[in-house]
Amino acid sequence: MATKLVFLLLLTAFSVQAQAKETPADNYKAYCVQCHGSEGTGKGVNVRDMSVVPRDHTDAKSMSGRSDETLFKAIKEGGPSIDKSILMPPWGSTLSDEEINDLVQHLRMLCKCKFG
Amino acid sequence: MKRMILVTVLGFSGAVLAEGGMLQESCAACHNIKGPATQTLKAAFEKKGPALFYAGNKYRQEWLVSWLQKPSRIRPAGMYYGGHIKPGPKGDEIDTSTLTDHIALSKADATSVAAELMKLKPHNDLIAKEKIESGTISKQMGEMAFNKFLGCMACHLIEPEYGGVSGPELYTAAKRLQPQYIVSFIRSPQAWEPKSMMPNKNLSEVNIQKMVHYLETLSKEATNGH
To answer: Would you say the pTM of this structure is higher than 0.90?
Structure first.
């Protein structure tokens, strides 16, 4: 009985942990910085040989030309979904919709800008 | 007859103790040898080496034996990559001063640790789902798909001086990895590592098979070059 309870507790702890939502800052650091760079300016460690440079997320001018829906789509389904480069990957299998929405807000913070 | 059984039993438990001991004592500080896979980014940022608890589903044994004696760098930016980059004049660059050489083993230790690692097969289910279709692809066609149509070059080197650096170099992948693992990982990195920094690019079956054939072509070339 006692072992069963401990097992159940462990199981709960484990599954909650597995589904826990990450912060947008951590998601950006883990997945986006490799290309968009530690400053978000599009100068990540991977860019040397890339034929299309990653978007500068701090550039208010170009970022304000994108609606939140477009940014969401680009992140979830990748560059080609908004007629952009295949080098921008789809993150729909990595991030939940909620996490992607949070990332869109994180991008708005980086560019200090809104749509329009 | 009785004596033989006894000898076998003793021999077996002796080996398990010694080798389990080595993995535990010399490797577990940096490698996850028991599972489960990393479940949070906090833990992913702390990772000091790739997970080895599914080593038997992943590596070619002969490669393990030789690499462990003479390890060379596979991930240009180490692990986790974010801990080994610094700002430079043109953007982020690898901070090589933070990268260290991997521990090298004697032939005997490498052989016994490799044998121990090959027993770790918690993902036989994922491997059993995959089939490698026979086929070949020229280097040019493979490269075109890898770079232009699929965008894999952004994170992987396909030769020592071409490609991205946040992922493992891939010109040696087919020498290091079992083909079913390559297929399975490309199909779903998250099935192996939920927090993998490689995205699922939703490749078609045809393209997945193309990638395995291309990586085989690349590795053969790398071998011929020596």
So the answer is: yes
